[in-house]
């Protein structure tokens, strides 16, 4: 058999094998079987952290829905999807990361960097594969310089960046199986 015929046979065998596995692969890394898993639902995430912007729970919920809609072929439904996501924002903290002192001043040391940290707990249910069901916590942070900007000036932007990172981690953990 010539090398070109061998290559063609090999390609056909690999294609048949992948089709037999009934797993669809995408550039987003999902390993969902869209013949079995067709829908997803996201319950409202509530802000149980005691801090942060008033609309933080709603913002996280909507961004999570949007991310799954953009990166999967699943249909968003109100309740009881084949994949179900629920949970809460459990942590919102602002803490100093570095201090700055002025040796020529009687002023006390002050924060040179502040860190916003957000934690989210997610319950994941996969009706097609119950072994994947579970609860997991995700967190991420962003720093800002309080000497040049106030929290009010940067909080919205930093929360959005933190949510983007947490949502990518949730996606990877739930449907990309990495």
TrEMBL record:
A GO cellular component annotation in the UniProt record:
outer membrane
Q: Does this entry carry the keyword ATP-binding? A: no
Write out the GO biological process terms: Gram-negative-bacterium-type cell outer membrane assembly
Q: Which InterPro entries match?
A: LPS_assembly_LptE
Q: Which Pfam families does the record cross-reference, listed alphabetically?
A: LptE
- The residue ranges crossing the membrane are none
**Keyword terms of this UniProt record:** Signal
Q: Does the keyword Signal apply?
A: yes
Which residues, if any, are the signal sequence? 1-20
Protein name in the entry:
Lipopolysaccharide-assembly
Q: Which organism is it from?
A: Cyclobacterium xiamenense
């Amino acid at each position: 058999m010539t090398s070109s015929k061998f290559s063609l046979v090999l390609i056909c065998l690999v294609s048949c094998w992948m089709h037999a596995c009934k797993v669809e692969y995408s550039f987003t890394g999902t390993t969902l079987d869209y013949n079995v898993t067709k829908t997803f639902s996201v319950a409202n995430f509530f802000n149980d952290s005691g801090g942060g912007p008033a609309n933080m729970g709603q913002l996280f919920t909507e961004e999570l829905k949007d991310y799954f809609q953009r990166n999967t072929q699943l249909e968003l439904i109100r309740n009881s999807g084949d994949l179900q996501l629920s949970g809460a924002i459990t942590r919102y903290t602002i803490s100093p990361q570095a201090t700055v002192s002025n040796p020529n001043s009687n002023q006390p040391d002050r924060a040179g960097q502040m860190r916003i940290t957000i934690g989210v707990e997610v319950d994941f249910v996969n009706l097609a594969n119950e072994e994947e069901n579970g609860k997991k916590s995700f967190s991420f942070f962003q720093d800002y310089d309080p000497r040049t900007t106030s929290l009010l000036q940067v909080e919205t932007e930093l929360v959005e960046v933190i949510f983007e990172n947490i949502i990518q981690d949730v996606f990877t953990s739930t449907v990309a199986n990495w």
